Amino acid sequence: MDIKKDREMNSCPVPNGILVIIGGAEDKGQQEDKEKESAELDPERMQVLKTFMEVMGVDDPHIEVITSASSEGEESFKDYQQAFQQMGAKTINHIHHDERGEINFGELEERLNKAHGVFFSGGDQLKLTSLYGGTKTLYLLKQRYIHDGLIIAGTSAGAMAMSTPMIYQGVGKEEMIAGHVKITTGLEFLRDVCIDTHFVNRGRFVRMAQVIATNPTSIGMGIEENTAVIIRNGKDAEIIGGGVVIIINGYNSRGTNIAQASNDEMVTIRGLQVDILSKGEKYEIPEINPPHK
Asked: Closest Cα partner for 224 from 205, 237, 206?
């Protein structure tokens, strides 16, 4: 088989847009952490949000903030509105849904077509996928990201939902028990990448390792708070912010007991490759599977 020729025949368009994937500390509705934090108070957090503004590349960007993951959508929106206004943005709109039946694509289409950037807040990533998966709204966002250069950002749960596979369950002792980390299909702006957030602060290495051991064609990208990964061309990653990003690669992993373990057996995984990256470091996301949208 001529792999190079096969790739050329089945190539997918390189996205013209940029992803800004933030490790958290901006979320306002996270069920695990109800502490309220104002986005304006932390300089590192503001620097990450400022990068989102900068990559849009326009003086007066049109921003749509989607707070549907949060149980406190109005409060979350007001914090981001204030932060973006401080940075010079004037047009900042709010999108929030609690049920799929509430989504009126006709009302959203014109706004989303005018947007320079879309920002997904934190909260519950499973709510985001169950609301927007398979909708015209998500399809339009993907088309604009690929063809029109739309900038899409997400923080905490809003970041975790941007990729596939997506973690939705497994914390504390649960993440150390083989097979107890639950995953599903995310919004798929990235495929074969699993994103986890608050990564160092909440000790989420083991649960990511479980995901990668059971999905070894994927890489794990664990992003710490006040830290972000900027992704250009669908694969070229750059680290910004005050923390680290941990990349877990399971291509050569072996000796895992996940498939055979009993209900209370601790997980074993051997042969994982780990990279720890800080501000300014770059990383190219591997393309193991044939190109696919």
From this structure: 205
CA 259 to chain centre: 27
Report yes or no: 21 and 247 within 8 Å, Cβ to Cβ: no
Q: Buried (b) or exposed (e) across 32-68, using 16+ Cβ within 10 A?
A: ebeeeeebeebeebbebbbbbbebbeeeebbbbbbbb
Can you count the helices (H) and strands (E) in the chain?
8, 16
Distance of CA 251 to the CA centre of its chain: 22
Residues 6+ apart with CB under 8 A from 71: 29, 31, 123, 124
Q: Which residues contact 57 (CB under 8 A, 6 or more apart)?
A: 116
pTM: 0.88
Q: Which tokens is 107 given? A: 């009302």
pLDDT in tens, 228-260: 999 999 999 999 999 999 999 999 888 888 887
Cβ contact 261:42 at 8 Å: no
Cα–chain center distance at 248: 16
Task: Give pLDDT, residue 292.
Answer: 53
Give the closest residue to 267 by CA, choosing from 253, 281, 283. 253
Over residues 65-87, the pLDDT tens digits come to 999 999 999 999 999 999 999 99
Round to whole Å and give the CA distance between 175 and 230.
Answer: 28
Q: Which 3 state secondary structure label does DSSP give 172?
A: helix
- Residue 169: strand, helix, or coil: strand
**DSSP per-residue string spanning 1-66:** --HHHHHHHT--PPPSSEEEEE-SS--S--TT------TTS-HHHHHHHHHHHHHH--SS-EEEEE
